[in-house]
Amino acid sequence: MTNILIKRHIMLYRQNAYKYLLLFVILALSVVLFTSLYIHNKEKNLLDSKYKESAKNTKEFIKNLIENKQNATLAIAISLAKDDRLYSYMKNRTYKNFEYEKISSQMREYTKFKNVWIQIIDKNGTSIYRSWTKKTNDNLLFRKDLNKMFKKQDITTSISVGKFDLSIKARTPIFDDGKFLGALEVITHFNSISKRLKKRGIDAIIAVDKKYKSRLTFPLTTNFIDDYYISNLDASKKFINYLKQNNINNYFNIKDYKIENTLFITSYELRDDNGGHLASIISFKDKNSIDIQAIKDYKRQMIMLVVILLIILVFIFTLYVYNIDSKNINRLNSRLKKHIKQLKIQENKKQSILDSQSSIMVITDGVNIINANKQLLKFFKDIRTLQEFREKYVCVCTQFIDMQDNSYIFDKDYDGKNWAEYILSKPHKNFKAAMKNHYGSIRHFSVKVSKGEYDDYIIVTLADISSEIEQKQQLKYLNNNLEKLVNKKTLELKKLNESLEDKIKDEIFKSQEKDRLLFQQSKITAIAETLNNIAHQWRQPLSTISTATSGMQLQKEMKILDDETFNDSCETILRSTKTLSKTIDNFSNFFVQEKQKIEFKLSDSIHETLKFLNSTFEEKNIIIDYSMDKDIKIYGYKQEFQQSLLSIFDNAIYAVCTNKDIKNRIISIEIKNNCLSIRDSGDGIDEEDLDKVLEPYFTKKHQAFGIGMGLYMVQELLVKHMKYEIEVKNSTFSYNNKEYYGALIFINFN
What we know:
Blueprint: H1 2-81, H2 84-92, H3 100-110, E1 117-122, E2 127-130, H4 144-152, E3 156-161, E4 166-176, E5 179-188, H5 191-199, E6 203-208, E7 224-225, E8 228-230, H6 237-245, E9 258-260, E10 263-271, E11 277-286, H7 293-322, H8 329-356, E12 360-364, E13 369-372, H9 374-379, H10 386-393, H11 419-425, E14 431-436, E15 442-451, E16 458-464, H12 466-557, H13 563-590, E17 598-601, H14 602-612, H15 614-619, E18 623-628, E19 633-636, H16 638-656, E20 666-672, E21 675-680, H17 710-721, E22 725-735, E23 738-748
Parallel strand pairs: 18-20
Antiparallel strand pairs: 1-2, 1-5, 3-4, 4-5, 6-8, 6-11, 7-8, 9-10, 10-11, 12-13, 12-16, 14-15, 15-16, 17-19, 20-21, 21-23, 22-23
């Protein structure tokens, strides 16, 4: 019977044990499932908060860089506008005296400003001077920021897209006795901003809105993604290709951030004064560079808490099941001791995890400290244990310093809440705290607070951010020093300019005197060449007159001069006299001074010039090869244009006459596709001299043949006055199935 009762008791015990075991398994699985979901969601929310904070910091840093660049640009503009010579040059329209390209060069050499442009705009909105290019006389009132400044006539700054680039601009008005003359504009670029971002591990792509593509007629870079112009010179080809492959439109107006593969992507939108979109600064950085160690530590802590909870459940289950059988009490006690030992081990592991953190971690109820890691004891070196800390300081908050800053927390009443509760009530705000270490130095900490779900304990993490605070302070100090340096260098530049102005005036006087003498010599040379041509063309008619006269005189002496011979000789003399007179008229008409522009044919000018030089060609055995597909009509001063052709042919004649083989003296003239090409067989121009031939006073001729003003005057007339293009180079050409090599003068009338 006893055995039956024992068996029944054992069976009942086993049945109950199975029920409780099943209940425990369900409960344990539920705990694991719900806590896993909670940890996952909490980790996701913390990561999202961390990434949003990183994106916000990146955008704030970009904003500060732009504001600093705008302030520096404005400081330069105000300094340059104080130069009295600026008003004098604007008033007297002596725009050629502006020398801001030298100031830009000096700033590039002596300051951190490597690419500063300076522009002068007249009262009509026309650019009359640019320090970086010779392109001027174009109207800029299509720019809204410039239009606004011209209406206000006050100092302004802006970010806008011009014909050359997206840039930061600062303008100051120019007045003379209250009369508005125009504006001085200083232009800086975004390249230094992208370089500063690069130093922080951020690659930037500055993409200008595609609606400005047609405006960018002279872009600084050649990089485009679809119709979006890439403004920064150091833009990474890797990320340019990345945006091309993934459609750049997906990366504008990113609300907070994007995570793609290992890339952390944000965008900063640049807008004009009216809110219109100018460009986007798309930034890329390695996602792994963002510090999420605190989130990983929090996840490990939560997992440890779940493990501890499961151990407690196991303990409760074991205690409840085995208390039915008295024989198992000792075994239960033994297991209980074992579990308690395991709990102590887990507690030690938990403390080890806390101690392994690089930041100070404190568990508190908001007033009294419950637990902390060893980093707290390392910071407060005057205490050795947590108990000593409790006795001396009670709470870590008692050591917080009031920094007179709303972002810094300290021990006070926040509308009925203590400091920890106040932080918990504002989860999206970043709080900091300041404490003095044992050396008396103030250290700054980022404060993060979280609260346990199953208790009222608060976990406080204090991450040392002193180096970041010091960097910000150093940046502010450097900005202040930079402003002082700019002012100092501006004053030095002003003194240097005054000294240079005196030297330049002296050099100009000497240069003018030299020019006067050289032009005088040029006139004498031209007169000599003209007289030589007249003499050459007069030689044959005079010879004819001399022959006819001497013939009549001889026949008269021999008394054989009849009326018919006399009349024939007189007619010959009259024809020769008319030829002499016509030659004088041709030369007079060729050099006549014109008072107004006319429309004339290119072929007519060439024929008249060749006719003028015909005797020279015959004397020097020069062959003229002339061809034309379609004539060209030109509007301008015909005689000045023919004198330019005369200078070109004069150089060609001199070149081919160096060829001793008179059969190879060829000058080729071709009119094709609205262009004029004049080639000679004179063996060409030395390569090192090609860039100099259009400069004044440059010549390879002997002094008796010229002073180097011919081609320079051709360039002055054709390029500066008539707005055509001229190019000088060496080339080959064919004549009668034979190749010749020499100089080419190419004039483009398009």
